[in-house]
């Protein structure tokens, strides 16, 4: 019997558009879902650009206004990969039109917008997800299993950092990713949001934070992104940078664990260093994106004399998602994290439930982001509302 189709309308076709398109195309290669994704239409404002992207990435049609995607009755799911200031308007309109939604992170410009988005999807009863792709790395999923099954014991510490260096040149332009009106915050919402998501996933809810934020380069030439994380200046004019370049915070979790977090785009030499360590009463785990298939594990139960961190290649069938790809030892990469999300999303739609992380996670994440900003401004600890 033919499978029910999920006809996708995607907004945005650059970096994340490429990652999501690839995921929908490759999904049926690896996973046998109960529904079938169909790359129905893609939207972008520049007609030549969106047409070329549709042709290259395999979308059946294109639109130059996202509103058309929401209006079309041959679209079931809206995928939002456009800049952050567009997320709330598109998601709320999509929910009101009864479309399922997946949205890039951070969910919104601020917690208030994120709450309104959550209310809209709840009211409409549509399936929703936020695209925190690192949760879908087999090694991280396996770490979660170790923690949940008590093998690490009581969790005392989580420390994480997410370091990049692509805006260190003072001539790197003031692109949308560096403008508060378009992205809400800088490194904080872009990178720290991922670490906060992993913290909430692996360790627990964050209850209070003490943070600091800094902007090292205060003015930059105006300009635009030109693909990936490259950009070009548009002339001589300069503008004020009103988002953070770097952020750090300490926190407490609801289970008494302590957290230490840092994110920066000024970590010279670090192209995409996303790492964490979690310490429990019986064991510890360490993970690093640049070796994403590996989990470093220390267990007290190892024989005395042979104790130490060992490297587990999370590529065996027993490791989450890994069995869908290749035989043991054959590694997967960044793009596969998006295939794993697409898999969860399709199953969520088939079963009419919103898999984690969803808009509630996005809202909770945004509350933490906002608390860190407030704490940095007011130079004091800030509590995160619990519900
Ligand atoms: C740029 O900093 C970026 O692409 C982020 O936007 C992503 O969320 C992160 O996963 C990789 O770096």
From TrEMBL:
The keyword Protease does not apply. InterPro entries: Gfo/Idh/MocA-like_OxRdtase_N (IPR000683), Gfo/Idh/MocA_oxidrdct_glycsds (IPR050463), GFO_IDH_MocA-like_dom (IPR055170), NAD(P)-bd_dom_sf (IPR036291). One of its GO terms (molecular function) is oxidoreductase activity. The lineage of its organism: Bacteria, Bacillati, Bacillota, Bacilli, Bacillales. It comes from the Bacteria. It comes from Paenibacillus nasutitermitis. Residues 6-130 form the Gfo/Idh/MocA-like oxidoreductase N-terminal domain. Residues 140-286 form the GFO/IDH/MocA-like oxidoreductase domain. It holds the Pfam family GFO_IDH_MocA_C3. This is Oxidoreductase. Keywords: Oxidoreductase.
